[in-house]
Amino acid sequence: MAQEAVGRPPEETLSLWKREQALLKARVVDQDTEAWQRDPAFAGLQRVGGVDVSFVKGDSVRACASLVVLSYPELEVLYEDSRLVHLTAPYLSGFLAFREVPFLVDAVRRLQEKEPSLMPQAGFGVACHLGILTDLPCVGVAKKLLQVDGLEKDALHRDQIRLLRAGGDSFPLRSRSGAVLGRALRSHDRSTKPLYISVGHKMSLEAAVRLTHSCCRFRVPEPVRQADIRSRDYIRRTLGGPRTPAPGQERKAQRPKVRPKGGPEEPPGEGRTPEAHSPGLRTHPEAPDPGAQEQ
Fold first, then answer.
1. Host H or E run for residue 131
2. Rounded mean pLDDT for each run of 10 residues along the chain, 295 residues in total
């Protein structure tokens, strides 16, 4: 049975959240801290992680928090942790991390206890908040532009997107003052919609963009895409409903659809990819962040 969302937290709680955000912001490291980050081919990087929080349809309280670890550069899944959680905070713009990150921190801690040799060396999705709490280098990745501080999805922005000709092309996202808040990235040759990349923690923006591009088999980085697929499949298996078909087995009895020249932007039959996850390893439909994602 669907459950109703919890109400807006009291002003005292919001004040505490704002204070904690300020403390976390002061601890953000926006420079490369690992030798592999400075290598053109990321030599020495062996494991990358991704997180996702998927919601039960018609239910704003129950969700599935998922953490996956993939090998690099092969991008094969080495570890998966998915479990149902009950959210205790509502979605508020600017405070997404307080709703979801505690469950993702728990997943990282379980990994540290069970399989410490598989701890990721970098993570995608929820950027600063999760990165600081876990001390992991993290990348902020969003599928939608957060229109804040002068960033607008206007004609100029659309013109800049059209100039992204190939996978790996990007342009800076600048605030009203001219500060670079992130970069818009064409993550794949066959993807026409950009991703929005922001620095999470313990990594430069340049390295974050290069690493994101290197992890994209499709539009969304594989660690985040796999976390999303597996969290949704866990909900289906746990609460009922059809399972996600295995790659190559989907729609066998159906007439193939005509696809645009160049192939699909996303693989068929593997579920909906996340819209814009938050701090360090994930993505959420409205996840705010400086230019790309919530901090």
1. helix 127-134
2. 64 92 93 97 98 90 96 98 92 85 96 97 85 94 82 91 96 91 94 92 96 97 97 93 50 37 47 35 34 35
pTM, to two decimals:
0.80
Secondary structure (3-state) at 115: coil
Integer Cα distance of 209 and 212 in angstroms:
5
pLDDT at position 294 is: 34
**48 φ/ψ angles, rounded to the nearest 5 degrees:** -130, 150
Q: Which of 85, 87, 200, 223 is nearest to 134 (CA)?
A: 200
- Token digits of residue 258: 């005509």
CA distances from 111 to 46, 66, 81, 108 (A): 16, 12, 8, 5
Distance CA 198, CA 209 (A): 8
Structure tokens at 174: 């600048």
Residue 183 tokens, joined: 């970069």
d(CA 26, CA 42): 28
What's the CA gap between 272 and 258, in Å, rounded?
19
Count of C-beta atoms within a 10 Å radius of residue 174: 15
Q: What is the dihedral of CA 232, 82, 109, 291, to 10 degrees?
A: 0
285: helix, coil or strand? coil
Tell me the three state secondary structure of residue 280: coil
- Which residues touch 116 (CB under 8 Å, ≥6 apart)? none
Distance of CA 251 to the CA centre of its chain: 28
Q: Distances from the Cα of 67 to the Cαs of 79, 96, 280, in angstroms?
A: 8, 17, 12
How do 122-125 and 138-142 pair as beta strands? parallel
